[in-house]
Amino acid sequence: MVFPSSVRDIALLLTRVAVGVVFFAHGWQKLFTNGIDGTAAFFDQAGVPAATASAWFAAVVELAGGAALILGLAMPVAGLLLLINMIGAYAFVHAGSGLFADKGGYELVLVLGAAALSLAVIGAGRFSLDHLLTGRRPAQRQRVSA
């Protein structure tokens, strides 16, 4: 079944906002609630290399990337940076704890990373700043007329 483009764009908008809010909240938590020092201390305890630099990277990418998803801005870049961030979270913090989040597992990291990758590849949709700035969807720009 193929949905009309307006339904796909609404679905992309809802997905972007939902995922963006979660990333933004986690970035806010790292930067302002726990602070970079608290986040770096946790990262150091978890064995994350360059804990302070990694804490800054994670906080800024999650905060700015989450905002970018909500606004639908720079979707390929934001999505890929968020995916890289989630790969790091999986590798250094969650991989050894199984799947379930209540036991420190990677289920949230997996879903957020997959969503970020999907948005990076699919794009932001019509209801986005990317569309407003370019005037068309990424798939339309890639088409070559014969």
Explain this structure.
- This protein has 146 residues and is mostly helical.
- The chain has helices at 5-33, 35-46, 51-71, 75-94, 107-122, 129-134, 138-142.
- The radius of gyration is 17 Å and the shape is globular.
Distance between the termini: 28 Å
Largest sheet geometry: none
Uncertain segments are none
Mean pLDDT: 93
Helices and strands, in order, run as HHHHHHH
Percent range of helical residues: over 70%
β-strand amount: under 5%
Q: Compute the gyration radius: what is it?
A: 17 Å
Give me the count of strands.
0
Molecular shape: globular
User: How many helices in DSSP terms?
Assistant: 7
SS-derived structural category: mainly alpha
Element layout with pairings:
Elements lengths: L4 H29 L1 H12 L4 H21 L3 H20 L12 H16 L6 H6 L3 H5 L4
